[in-house]
Amino acid sequence: MVLWNDERLGLELSIIMDDTTLGPGLGGTRWRAYPTRTEALVDNSRLARGMTYKLALAVGKDTELAKAGVSFGGGKAVIRGESTQDKSKREDQLRAYAALINSLGGRFITSIDVGTSVEDAITMRGVTKWVGGLPQEMGGSGDPSPATAMGVIWGLRACVGAVYDTDSFKDKTIAIQGIAGKVGSTLARDLAREGAILIGSGRNQSTAQKIATEVGAKLVPPDEIYEQECDIFSANAFGGILNDDTIPKLRCRITAGGANNQLWDPLRHAAMLQDRGILHAPEFWINGGGVINVAHEFHPQGYSQERAFADIKRIYDRGKEMIEISRREKLPLLTAAMRLAEDRIRKAKTAD
User: Fold this and answer.
1) In angstroms, how far is CA 141 from the centroid of its own chain?
2) How far is CA 68 from CA 52, 126, 211, 300, 325, in A?
3) What average pLDDT score do residues 59-65 get?
4) What is the pLDDT of residues 151-164, one digit of tens each?
5) Are 176 and 258 in contact (CB under 8 A)?
6) In DSSP terms, which residues pair with 28 in a beta bridge?
7) pLDDT for the residue 260
8) Domain spanning 146-289+318-342: which CATH class is it, in words?
9) pLDDT mean over 310-331
């Protein structure tokens, strides 16, 4: 763990490399106004652990990355505070942060997350090569949000196939929490094109209304999204939203979305969802599309969208495999996914 507080620049951040057995820690930089330092560190720790599982599943032996000998461990960075709007000050902060990353010598590679952008990645690239999410004209993969949404779509197909015996979204009712966000809005557009019936909510009311109008979604207040009758509840905002208070309100058969750390108490709440007959898609499996896309920037032959998208599509195959294990052994899907990820890490440690 790296803790850094530069009072002159007004920059407080943490970098956590959770597990580097499989390779250098890879994870985005989240810039968010956490109320306390403790809350920022707890969230960063949870996010970094999620990246460990995510990358262990995402870069399996059948992937294009694995064939090229490329693999990553889990990491994450959190900048605590309001996202700086002054361009000059923000660039100074990002350059200082990039220099810190550079000092780690490639043990941590970062990209875009909530509160950071492709423009930020360009600024940081001037200082360190250990940053992804660059625009394609610079040899990068661009904003990872569309790739994240693509991965969620493939994961949703696996879940819908398991529950409804079809991979079609036509006439399926899907409640999208965070419809105004980058991932949520892309997901909404993709699902609308495939004939899904959409319900949405978002904290940014004006943007949420704009997206809802575009895709023909019914917009409801944020605190009412949980109790909507639907086939799928898709969380695409912040974490911890599936908990003792919200799970009893759900009226769906599947929970699957792009948000990280959706379960407040992962093992207990995964079991709680299973007891209610709800299939929960672990986010470190289903939302891996973005980091897979970024990881391909470090392929020996450079970024190729064709190779990256082929690996994102494998989210579907991985999901079917995990669902089969879950059903055969009567386990929550979360437990089956964790076992697969931990088994890959354990085998790598043994090989060393």
Assistant:
1) 16
2) 20, 27, 40, 7, 28
3) 85
4) 999 999 999 999 99
5) no
6) 111
7) 87
8) alpha beta
9) 94
